[in-house]
Amino acid sequence: MSKKAIFYHAGCPVCVAAEANLAQAIDTSRYEVEIVHLGSQSSRISEAESVGVKSVPALVLEGVPFHINFGANLSDLK
C-alpha cells in the first residue's frame, strides 16, 4: 500500500520548476502522488490550509507539509 503525497502549486514559474524537479522525482512505488494546481482548483485551498500549507509550492507527505522555495502565499490565491 502506497502512502499519499500531495504537491500543491499555483502555476507560477517557481511552482512549475518544483513540480518538474521534485514532485516528478518522488518514488511512485512508495507514494501515490497527486498534483493540485490551486490556481485552477481554488476549491482545494481550504484543504491545503487545513494540513498546514502556508505558501506554494508545497509538498505534503503523509499529512506533513514541506514548503519548497517561495512562489505565493495561499492568501494571495483566494
UniProtKB/TrEMBL annotation:
Species name:
Acaryochloris marina (strain MBIC 11017)
Q: Which residues form the Thioredoxin-like fold domain?
A: 8-64
Q: Which Pfam families match?
A: Thioredoxin_3 (PF13192)
Q: Which domain of life is it from?
A: Bacteria
Q: What is this protein called?
A: Conserved domain protein
